[in-house]
Write a structure and sequence with these properties.
With 370 residues, this protein is an alpha/beta fold. The protein has a single domain (50-350), classed as 3-Layer(aba) Sandwich (Aminopeptidase). It is built from 12 helices and 8 strands. The protein binds zinc ion.
Length: 370
């Protein structure tokens, strides 16, 4: 299914969002008044987030795209200006902003990310739905499960990159005609079943095999740009990975989680760092209890687990980082039927964010040492 036209989905480098979004300034979403030929659409006043309840902003039940995410993020910020800020961690290969959503006002910070892998874009819609739901519950002073959203968001700030690989998601959902360098992509190795099953970024590099953590040992069965599994010519060659590294180093994050599909399992430790990180097993057990997801054994071989975001985060900071595989296995490498978002992802996993925040409040924070 094509959700947007190619022209909407392939920004020329340097235009469109380059003015309102920069890594140095909060994302305001304004058109900055530089184009005299069009009348900027005024941004409506923030919708009061009290009754009557606003209609849902995020629609996760469609093939989710970068364009949709950016538009919905702006609406979320307008609806919950006291809780949500937007910024950019950097640019993708094709020039798309790597959206960062900040949710909450607390000193203690946690880092969540989705869609390192293109075909797993349901993790982006999942994180967007999480932002809206948590903000709405907090603003209404409602409980959510056993959690108190207003209290948590007063003490914790979620820093969320919903779509680490927007160019790959664009290929999966808008097709080859929406890609900037079609010939280059067509020349890459096709490992999976087709472009709907693309995992890599648009340079054909698997972004979760790119981080400088046992990268040299990481097994690479492809050895050249491909739809999946190519680890790149060196670690951190790709702009999306460098942006995530810079973001993680830019603040004191107590823990992090990276969302993938499929399998309903949690990777919570690797042999290189498991003894360095206090409390991680307890957090993992609580995640298992709350969601029914299965805990994987401690990953043993750097040739297998190396160079993933979560492995790098553990090694770099000696703090917990989880790789969470949302959604059930279904015997195909292509995306799920997005219309079934609730049963595929949301019903079991909707408390993940608050649980991680709650656990972050129990862990020693860098702030405790000051
Ligand atoms: Zn993945």
């Amino acid at each position: 299914m094509i959700a947007e036209t190619p022209s909407q989905s392939t920004p020329a480098p340097g235009n469109r969002l380059s003015d309102p979004v920069s890594s140095a300034a909060p994302y305001t979403g304004s058109s900055a008044g530089t184009d005299a030929k069009t009348t900027p659409t005024p941004i409506p006043d923030p919708v009061p987030s009290t009754d009557p309840a606003p209609a849902a902003i995020v629609n996760p039940c469609v093939p989710y795209t970068w364009d949709r995410m950016m538009a919905e993020a702006q609406k979320l910020r307008n609806a919950y200006p006291e809780l949500i800020d937007l910024s950019s961690a950097g640019k993708s290969v094709e020039g798309r902003d790597l959206l960062v959503i900040s949710l909450g006002t607390g000193d203690r910070k946690i880092l969540l990310c989705g869609a390192h892998h293109a075909r797993e874009y349901i993790t982006s819609s999942f994180l967007m739905k999480m932002v809206e739901t948590y903000a709405e519950k907090a603003s209404k002073r409602q409980s959510f499960g056993d959690f108190n959203p207003a209290e948590i968001l007063d003490r914790v700030t979620f820093v969320i990159v919903p779509m680490v690989n927007p160019d790959g998601v664009n290929l999966v959902n808008n097709g080859l005609q929406a890609v900037s360098s079609r010939e280059d992509v067509e020349a890459m190795a096709m490992v999976g079943s087709g472009y709907r099953a693309w995992k890599a970024n648009i340079n054909g590099v698997d972004l979760n095999r790119q981080y400088p953590a046992c990268w040299e040992e990481k097994y690479d069965e492809v050895g050249r740009p491909a739809s999946q599994n190519y680890k790149g010519a060196a670690s951190a060659t790709e702009p999306e990975v460098r942006a995530m590294i810079d973001l993680a180093r830019s603040d004191d994050f107590v823990l992090s989680a990276s969302f993938h599909t499929k399998g309903e399992v949690i990777y919570w430790a690797d042999s290189g760092t498991v003894d360095l990180i206090d409390g991680v097993k307890d957090i993992a057990r609580r995640m298992e209890e709350l969601t029914g997801y299965e805990l994987m054994p401690v990953s043993q071989k750097p040739s297998v687990y190396g160079a993933g975001f979560e492995n790098w985060f553990r090694l770099e900071f000696s703090r917990p980082s989880f790789c969470i595989e949302l959604t059930p296995e279904n015997g195909t490498d292509e995306p799920h039927d997005d219309a079934k978002f609730d049963s595929l992802a949301w019903e079991k996993a909707k408390y993940f964010g608050f649980l991680l925040a709650d656990e972050a409040l129990k862990l020693e924070s860098p702030y405790d040492k000051q």
